[in-house]
Amino acid sequence: LTFFALLVFVLSFIRIYKNKRRFRKSEAFLKNVLSTTDNVVNYYEPIFNNNNNDIIDFKILYANDCNRDYFGLEPDEMIGDSVLNVFPFLSENGEFNKMKQSYLEQTKEISDRQIVVQDSNMWFESIVTPLADGILETARNTTAEEEAKEIQLAFKKRLESQNLRLLDNRAFLGNIFKSISHVVMHFKSIRNTKGEIVDFKILFVN
To answer: What is the pTM of this model?
Structure first.
C-alpha cells in the first residue's frame, strides 16, 4: 500500500509538473503576443461599494507595454491600481459607464475617444469585452486615420471655397460682358499637322 501510494504520488507530481510547464509556456506565448501588438490591452476586475450592489471602480490586473508607448505609463506600476485613478478622463466622457454595462450585462461595448498626451491629440477606438471575472479592454490607436480625415475635410472645405469664388468671378465677368456695348469673343487656334494655324474655334461670345 505504501509503495502504491508513493507511485500514485509520483505520477500525480509528474502530471502536475507537466501541466505547470505547459501553462508557463502558454503564458509566455500569450505575453509575447500581447507585447508585439500595436494595441493597448488591459484587463480589469470590478470594485464594488460597501453594499456590494454597485461598481465604483475597476482594479487593473494586467496592462501591456503599449500603455508605456502611448501614455507614458509603466505597466508594472499600473497593476493593482484603479482604472479611475490611472485614467480619470473615463468618468468624464461616459466610457466608465460603458465598462460597467459590459460587465453587468455581459455585452461588448465599442467607443471612440480623444485624449491629450503631452500636448498632442490622440484618438483611440476602444473595445470592452467581458472575460472571466472582469473585462478586457483593447484600444486601437486611430490617430493617423483621424488626422487624415481632418486633412481631407480641410482640403474639401478649401476646394468648395475656391469653387464658390470661381463661380462668383464667372458671374461677375458675365455681368460685365452683358453690360458693355462692344462685341467680345474668345478664340482658340486650330492647327494642322505642320503646326500651322488653319482656323479658330469660338470659345466665348457675349
So the answer is: 0.60
